[in-house]
């Protein structure tokens, strides 16, 4: 089976899609749930309790949680010998 999408492009596309879904979920949470308190990114940076604040918080959190291990895998796999 051949595919037009390479492995790296697929993983990056999936990563971007997951970050976008997290941002959309944050926006919807901020829109439809009332009485929310302000989220704090990494327990340090406060975001406003608005739909845009929750969207940014969700996207940044998922980007960090998924991006750090992904970057580590890329770094380790680049040092491996295929032979």
TrEMBL record:
Superkingdom of source: Archaea
Keywords from the named record: Membrane, Transmembrane, Transmembrane helix
Pfam families membership: DUF7520
UniProt keyword Transmembrane helix present: yes
Segments crossing the lipid bilayer: 12-34, 54-78
Official protein name in the record: Cox cluster protein
């Amino acid at each position: 089976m051949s595919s037009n999408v390479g492995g790296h492009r697929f993983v990056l596309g999936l990563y971007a899609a997951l970050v976008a879904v997290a941002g959309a979920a944050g926006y919807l949470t901020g829109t439809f749930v009332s009485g929310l308190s302000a989220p704090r990114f990494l327990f340090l940076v406060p975001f406003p309790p608005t739909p845009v604040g929750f969207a940014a918080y969700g996207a940044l959190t998922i980007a960090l949680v998924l991006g750090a291990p992904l970057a580590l895998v890329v770094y380790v796999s680049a040092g491996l010998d295929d032979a």
